Amino acid sequence: MTSSRPHLALIAVTGTLALAACTSSTATIPAAPAPSSTAATSATTPQAPPPVPRPDPATVNRTDPTAVSQAALELMYLVDTTSDTGWADAAHRALPLLSSRYAQGVRAGGGRTPAGTWQEWTQHRAYTTVELKPSAETHPIDTTTQAHRPWLLTITPTGRDGWRGEPEQRAAFVTLTHADNGWAVDHITTQ
Fold this sequence. Notes:
Keywords: Signal. This protein is α+β, with helices and mostly antiparallel strands.
């Protein structure tokens, strides 16, 4: 269990992002997971497996809103401290799957990565794994131009030195629009 301090920080970040999403047409970079506990590693701790491959936006089935929303979430939450400088790098990888309006907001958003969390992860040469499960939450019926996909998201930081951070669970609600090149993510709300 995490202390209340990181939990409060996550609530503050999530609240700020939710408020920004409600009051602005610009997109935000996904909020970074809260700082995780520092698990002790020992000489007998096995090395962590390499990160899982990221989806290739060029091969995502753009006729399937579920496939587009899943790939976009994976791209936005799979980070690797050995090659990324923060969460904005991950969000930018998802740009090909975003609507032009949402992509413009992601580009302009810059993205903030909590220094303490990223520094801790960097010390462990950490990467995240993402587990996505469709949520049973009700959502509007798909139309020919708009679809909604609710997901349960678990983000787990894992260090190449055997360290494993506290998994973070979120609910993600993805809104998609249909354009000439197929479905595109138009908004993501997480809680």
